[in-house]
Amino acid sequence: MSKEQTTDLLKFLKPFSTEIQEIVLSLRVFVWDLYPQANELIYDNYNALAFGWSPTDRVNHTFCSIAVGRTSKNIHFGFYWGSEISDPKKLLIGEGKQYRYILVPRLEEFPWAYIKKLVKEGYQNSLKKVKDKKQIMSGQTITKSISAAKRTLKPKKKTVKKK
Asked: Strand, helix or coil at 111?
């Protein structure tokens, strides 16, 4: 299974702090343990590192994802079709037609049981979107894009107060 295939992802996570890496990798294990039959799609883009799970190799079938902003350093645990799943506690952020997410500043604050229910609903919803069942694959990690240019935060210049 692909849970062990971490070479590309670990390389893409290097610019981020150890704390961010630990959160992201813990969330990754959470999803892989729930859906080992899904496929992990990785997008190392200029503004964010994002990876999600799909029953196929297509992004439009993605049911959940993790993203880390290169400049904001915010971690999103999101749902590609989040507008179509229930969110009775109204924890998901987003007003657009599709994507919804929760910010994950610390694992201690992550609502594991609640998100597990949303992931299950998201997975069922994504399966309905697969028109050609021959597209369904199992347990692969696929790096879909690697951006040459990456945005990073420039360190703030220290100002010296004059006396």
From this structure: coil
Average pLDDT, the chain: 87
Backbone angles phi, psi at 119, to 5 degrees: -65, -40
CA dist., res. 133 & res. 154, Å (int)? 46
Q: Give one DSSP letter per residue of 46-70, joined into a string.
A: SSEEEEEEESSS-GGG--EEEEEET
List residues bridging with 44 in a β-sheet.
Answer: 49, 146
H helices present in 3-107, as ranges? 7-13, 18-34
User: Closest Cα partner for 92 from 100, 81, 84?
Assistant: 100
* Mean pLDDT, residues 114-139 taken together: 89
Return the exposure string of 16-43: e unless at least 16 CB atoms fall within 10 Å of the residue's CB, then b: beeebbebbeebbebbbebbeebbbbbb
Q: Give me the count of residues in the chain.
A: 163
Q: How far apart are CA 160 and CA 27, in angstroms?
A: 41
* 8 burial via Cβ count (<10 Å: 0-12, 13-18, 19+): middle
C-alpha distance from residue 157 to each of 24, 153, 163 (Å): 29, 12, 19
- pTM for this model (two decimals): 0.84
* 88: β partners: none
